[in-house]
Amino acid sequence: MEPLTWTGSFGTFLDPIFWVVAWVFIAAVALQIIGSWVLPPVAESINLDGTITRTMGPNLAIRMLVKASLLTLLALCVLYILAGMFTPLGTVGIIGAVAAQFAPVWIALVVTFLVSISYKRRLGLYGKLFDSTIGMIGFALLMFWFYTAVFVGLFDMIATHDPLTQLSGMKNKLPGTPLRSPEEGQFSYYLLGGDNLARDVFSRMVNGSVIVIVIAPFATLFAFMVGITLGLPAGYFGGKLDALLSFLANLVLAFPVILLFYLLVTPEIVATGIPNYMAMVLFVFPIIFVGVLLNSRFYTRPKLRTPLLSGVLLVMIWVYLSAISADGTVINVLPGVMDLFNINSGILVVFVSVVFVNSPTVFRIVRGLVLDIQTRDYVAAAQTRGEGPWYIMLWEILPNARGPLIVDFCLRIGYTTILLGTLGFFGLGLPPESPDWGTTINDGRKLLSIYPHPAIVPAFALLSLVLGLNLLADGLREESLRD
Prior knowledge:
By secondary structure, the protein is mainly α. The chain is built from 19 helices and 4 strands. The protein has helices at residues 11-38, 58-86, 93-101, 103-118, 124-128, 133-155, 201-237, 239-253, 257-265, 267-271, 274-282, 285-297, 302-324, 345-373, 377-384, 389-400, 402-425, 437-445, 453-481, and strands at residues 43-46, 52-55, 177-178, 189-190. A hairpin with a 5-residue loop joins strand 1 and strand 2. The chain crosses the membrane at residues 17-39, 60-82, 94-117, 129-155, 210-232, 244-265, 277-296, 308-326, 346-366, 409-430, 450-473.
């Protein structure tokens, strides 16, 4: 079999058009930047009757050219994707083959956007996100990797090979290289090349998304549970409680983040069982948060509160014990029959480290928001009605702090993704054969000047996910400020 080119036979007539439009777009953007400094913002002309007519002048034409060329580029990209999905393998080359592998993701994205836009007026802040172009782009990038992780992790789709399998003769092969002797039913190409251990770069990239999507959002969510549970009473009650919790938060924040991560994930620290004991403490906070939330909400309805609270807490405690209990560790409190799942020790260490490092920052943000919001009239009205402190904190103050917290949550997932990549790059926490993006970048950097593709592919994946989270946060910030 012949190696695949990037665009195959389909690109012989479409590639020139694409590059012409791309250069027009680059030139138009450059003109727009220069025009903002050189050209007047408006063009004025004096009419015969003495009146003045103002128009956008050349700036408007340049702006329209930028928009038209960008839309044309996007249309050409969609054409490449559609052609790759509906034509035989190789017709649109590597781009088409990769697009075809991501077919379930494209379908899920289209369905998500169609449904969300149709009902956006009923979906609150999430629906308003689709009024922001930046927010929609960020959401699309985030959901692309989310759906990729779902289809890879749950349905074993998209990936063309096992991420750990080494195939003879495929070491450091370029993108589009065919297998020497593919077995029956085996995908015939390494679409994005092979790495220094003859593993498929494309399959390792998509499998790496599972690790990032599992750890980063959930670790950030747990950090928010810890920060909110401690930040609300610290800001509301103040006094010695506030001083003590603020001192502990400042103590953790005094350490450099990377150094703290390095200390927590080193084998010597892991061998002492410290991360397991930290997990035992930190994983309790979601139970506390949900328990107090439900109790404060249904306190005046004991017939509903008691069974609801008992059932929810029973399930959460079972999940909690399953999370902290594992064979061969310092904590093994559940028999194997009752243990719902076993978290990989490397993932648990990284997860706990992320929660521990992010919690103090979330605590300080929540504490500051509470100090500001508790002076509002609706809080005083709730106090006058005789509502309890926890009801006021969780059902009056917290909902009105959701805007800044949602924005920070998106940004913090991006920071966590970068931290996970940094840990993997230094070979800390996760196993060395792990397909996470940081480890893959570290493996590929050793021959970066000769074979750049093993490092560039996961680096681009990491960049696109973090960019999507940042754009999503910007879009949410814009829409929350309009409320």
